[in-house]
Write a structure and sequence with these properties.
Length: 355
Amino acid sequence: MEIKFTKAPQLKEKPVDESKLGFGHIFTDYMLVMPYDEGLGWHDPEIRPYGNIELSPASMCLHYGQTVFEGLKAYRTADDKIQLFRPDENFKRLNVSHERLVIPHLDENLAMECLMELLKVEKDWVPHSEGAALYIRPYTFAVDPFLGVKPGEHYLFVIILSPSGAYYASGLDPVNIYVESKYVRAVRGGMGFAKTGGNYAASLIGQDEAHKQNYSQVLWLDGVEQKYIEEVGAMNIFFVIDGEVITPMLQGSILPGITRKSSIELCKSWGLKVTERRITIEEVAEAYDNGKLDEVFGTGTAAVISPVGHLKWNDKIMEINNNKIGAISQKLYDTMTGIQWGRVEDTFNWTVEVK
Ligand SMILES: *Cc1c(COP(=O)(O)O)cnc(C)c1O
């Protein structure tokens, strides 16, 4: 499909100080927009100047939340190549989210072509400094001007780009996590496995409570018994107990992270015992009491690996590995970021170059 290009009258200044990028504040010169209209399908993709989108106040996405998104990054290697990490997995997952929210299937090759074209135009926006990358946000939302409840017949697929700073300014700082035992994020049969705004809306109140108690993130328990560990809401979670790497199995309420999948594959390739199963918070606390809880870490595109320093469950505060990053967490972080920035040989064929 031909992608139309509309030139911006003037380009923005690129950020000079990449140490001040932060996350999600700065947007590049261009975005990709592709409409879907019933009868026409996905059509007329266009790369056009980044700017506001006009919507009817009755747009269905604003009222009933029919919207999904993805998140990935473009990395600049030392020899100045631009590469992506497993982008095919993102577009596969986008369609899984589409399906759950009754949004029409989007051809994954077409989505990838749109992204590649946009990145070719915006290559110079990929940061140069260690740990900084160009965050990519593809998303889809229903735009029908209608207040009845039904799946849309008109959508927009959009990709915006945001240069983002190194997640860790000074090495891998362990995060403090609060186990939420009142609210839940998702339930089995719900849409926890889809990357959709509604799951985040459901999580804000827990996040707020955690922040009030000086914890940075929430560990969610299952929505039925509030016993089994699910995930951190923007990260999946791993435990190393007595040398065994354990992560909650995917049962529909957990987002199937690509960093999670890659961590499992890497750990297995190193000969570690990796188990995907249900695990209760009691089991984790018991392992801690018995001195067998070696490491806890989160996985996600933003931080890659996020070691957990403190885990608070009701009145119990567990300090993990003396609030230091563990050996497996460190090895995963070094290997995955090494592959992403081209410092470590990509024996898995995970990276895709933007040419
Ligand atoms: C995106 C996301 C993750 C992490 O997925 P990655 O593909 O590893 O970035 C975990 N949980 C939720 C709820 C997410 O939205």
